Amino acid sequence: MQNPDYQTRVIFGIDIAKGSSRARELPRYAVAVLKEGDVTHHKMVRLPRILKMIREEHPEYIAVDNIFELAPDKKELVRFLQKLPEGVRLVQVTGGLHKKSLIHLAKENGLSFNQFDPNEEAETCARLASMGVGSEVSLFEDITKIKVSRARSLGRGGWSQNRYRRKVHGAVRERSREVEAILKKASKEHGYTYTSRISSGFGGYVRAEFTVYAKRNQVPVGSGSTADAQIRVSSVVRDKIQYTPLKKLKRRPTIVGIDPGTTVGIAILSFDAELLLLKSIRGISHDEVVKLIAEYGKPAVIATDVTPTPGSVERIRRSFNAVISTPSAEISSEEKIALGRPFGYSNDHERDSLAAALYAYRNYKNMFSRVEKKAPQHLDMDKIKLYVIQGASIGEAIEKVSGLPVPEKKPVKVLETPAEDTEERDRKISEKLKLKDTQINNLRDYLQELKKELKAKDKRISKLELKLENMRKANHLQIRKDKEIEIREHKISSLKKDLRRAKKSLKKAHYNIKKLKQIRKMEIKGEGIPVKILPSFTREAIFEIKDRLGIKKGDVIFLQDASGGSSVTASMVVELGVRAVITYSDMTYAAEDVFFRANVPLLKNVRIQRVDDLAVVDPALLQEALGEWEKEAEIKRQEEKEKKLKHLVDEYRSERRRGLV
To answer: pTM, whole model, 2 decimals?
Structure first.
């Protein structure tokens, strides 16, 4: 590979070696590090490793032949650029909107490489960037956003919610004032401007947003957070990718479109309709505008999209002694969009300046074509076009550039005509002129009518727009009102449900209290005997009731569900020494037998009065039930004795038959 002149700086050349930025697997790259004329190659490197190398070496340029080899789309490309250190610039060596192939550029600049070797392609990119070939890729406006807000949520609240809210909002206000003080000082030193938008809250600020019209590295405020407030600083991403040539072109004549105002839009075109600059800058002075335009060439035409020419645009025109270009009628928004779409723009100021420059170029395009056809190819076409724009004829312009006189055309002999024919011809011409004058006057009258109609329509449109805006505001307020009502109705409905549940619970509580009072009254008068309730006939339930209610000897127990009982659980109840067991459900034979043999009455269908875990039984009813049980038990005991005696007699008879007695 041939070597050009080198500069003592670090440049990274990158070319994709394996995979794709759109594939799932991370691609691998070939990296060529150009430093003081020497090249170091790194093969099959992944992007995270490249970023680490960039932070270590801090190169001036990162040169690629296609920026989308580094990222699959604009969003990922923005993330990549945000990770680069300050001062490191991304360069697409093949150009911006109008690309040239890498092979073609290499030949133009005396380089050669193997296009199938990623390492050589990466080195070629680095060397071309070192020679000023290519365009810098810009994805960020010269605008920085600073947002100061709460660092944590205020939560659902409580007794101290207002004090906590005041503390957080006060912290946001304090940090906002600190940021504004820094911006005021920096704006005076560096000459940029900023705007602020503050949302007030209880005890301070909810948030504060600052828009600084300067690059991120010019703003002396960094992101950070405290316990209550946080600061987030970020650059504003452009709608379209902007490409700025590395090598400033020679002072070629240019066509400059200006959109004046607080934010100035500037578009600079060459005579070949190549976009050299498209930018919008807020708060820029007249001298700064002139200086910026002069960097891209000598303006031949200063264009604006409005008529008459604004005073600030006229001042810029006089600074360059350029020709002014204004449209014959106002350019519509649709036409501006159509003109600017092939180039792309970020805002209305850039769109208007670009439309003005392109409209002026369109007016001169035919003249440029005639110059290119008539002028010798070895002459400077731009200079000839410049002289023609300034008022010279094409022949005079060629003579000025070449220094040689243009051959004069042979005079054409005029044949004399008879006087009568001359008079007749003059009469006809006079009639035609009168007819043309009449047509012109009619057209002027028609034009005035159209202007009046247009003015009336504009006035009507303004009124309708104002009415529409008022309707939108009213509609917005109504929507907010309806939303608030819906939220409150939902809350009221929820509270009503809670109130119904509370009333139901309160009613039940009153009923239980009434029952408890009755039970307590019966106990005091001796009209009721306390009954302790056992919900289920299990070991766990028996232990739980014993621990909670303290079952002691002589207590009466109500067994709510006796179906799961056994002889073991029945024995546990017997061991407690209870006086009687009341139940409404069936019990196993084994459990009943345990209670019978332990002489513990098992009473069924004895009415009790119950409130939750407490109950009483009428002493008379209990005594009556105990008496009945005792009678039945006595009968059962007699039957068992008879059965036993009969069994003994039967056994004796059996033994006697066998001769044992």
So the answer is: 0.41
